[in-house]
Design the sequence.
């Protein structure tokens, strides 16, 4: 049975919504979940959500890192926090993956400190799924590293390619680099030098892709520094919410329009589902020696349930081994691409 450790105290709606999502995951997926947090409080939530007879365990962690706290200071001051204790379960082999909707900086820092980095990876990256016309595209980095060197973007591509192939089942994933034009001459120094490394890497590199190409699905993996990736992510969230708010306003005007809206409601719901971040659950932190899923701080039960499912899929796909093997393959076929790019 797959075992997932979940930060019961992470996020704006913890522990209630987190526990509710874990109860749904345990019931639907048949997996074992270790809820990490103050034992009495977590057990009370499990009882409240009817999870007493499910495969739910509690790992006691009396301290909580709040969303506003400095990650470095909080990790030093609160050593028995729910994030660190959950990651220690993964490190010690008592859980196969970890999920948290809590302080992102603390989760990233604790993952590196507790699990360590995969050999050949200098900087772990957040890989976020965005919907496209024909599936999804993984964008990385989505915020972990705002200042990058070309070798880092190559490493992001290696990790993204391994994840998409082994977890999502895409053969020979297409790798694109986000730029301000599709021509090979476009881009800043980081993009131009990174593209050179990607062309020499042996990966299925399709060249520069523009912002509009993301939704069109011209690549399976899009690499960029964390500053660009986070702006894209937040803009995408905002534009999706804005579009549906406009639709709600316009479709509520007049009797005929409301009747037409009623007929269209099932299709609109399907579109909304494809664009809803809660459907993806969370974003994998790639590059550490263990599976770590970082969820949105505003996650409710549905998003938590799907984050646990994503963690189980990542654990089953053996993401760490896949990334390690991809790095070794590129070291063999194109060693120059990994030894340059500083």
Sequence:
């Amino acid at each position: 049975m797959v075992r997932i450790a979940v930060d019961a105290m992470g996020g704006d709606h913890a522990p209630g919504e987190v526990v509710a999502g874990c109860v749904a995951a345990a019931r639907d997926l048949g997996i074992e979940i270790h809820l990490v947090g103050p034992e009495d409080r977590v057990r009370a939530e499990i009882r409240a959500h009817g999870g007493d007879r499910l495969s739910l365990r509690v790992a006691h962690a009396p301290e909580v890192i709040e969303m506003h706290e400095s990650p470095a200071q909080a990790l030093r001051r609160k050593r028995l926090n729910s994030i660190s204790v959950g990651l220690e379960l993964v490190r010690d082999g008592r859980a196969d993956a970890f999920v948290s909707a809590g302080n992102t900086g603390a989760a990233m820092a604790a993952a590196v400190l507790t699990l360590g980095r995969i050999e050949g990876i200098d900087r772990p990256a957040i890989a976020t799924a965005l919907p496209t016309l024909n599936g999804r595209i993984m964008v990385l980095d989505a915020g972990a590293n705002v200042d990058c060197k070309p070798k880092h973007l190559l490493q992001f591509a290696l990790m993204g390619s391994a994840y998409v192939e082994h977890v999502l089942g895409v053969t020979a994933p297409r790798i694109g680099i986000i730029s301000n034009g599709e021509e090979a001459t476009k881009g800043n120094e980081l993009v131009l030098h990174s593209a050179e490394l990607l062309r020499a890497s042996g990966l299925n590199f399709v060249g520069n892709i523009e912002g509009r190409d993301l939704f069109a699905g011209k690549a399976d993996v899009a690499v960029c520094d964390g500053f660009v990736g986070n702006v894209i992510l937040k803009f995408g969230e905002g534009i999706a919410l804005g579009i549906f708010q406009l639709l709600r306003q316009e479709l509520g005007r007049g009797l005929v329009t409301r009747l037409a809206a009623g007929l269209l409601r099932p299709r609109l719901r399907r579109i909304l589902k494809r664009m809803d971040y809660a459907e993806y659950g969370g974003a994998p932190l790639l590059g550490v020696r263990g599976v770590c899923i970082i969820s949105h701080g505003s996650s409710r039960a549905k998003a938590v349930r799907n984050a646990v499912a994503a963690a189980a899929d990542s654990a089953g796909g053996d993401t760490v081994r896949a990334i390690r093997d991809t790095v070794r393959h590129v070291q063999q076929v194109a060693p120059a691409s990994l030894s340059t790019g500083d």
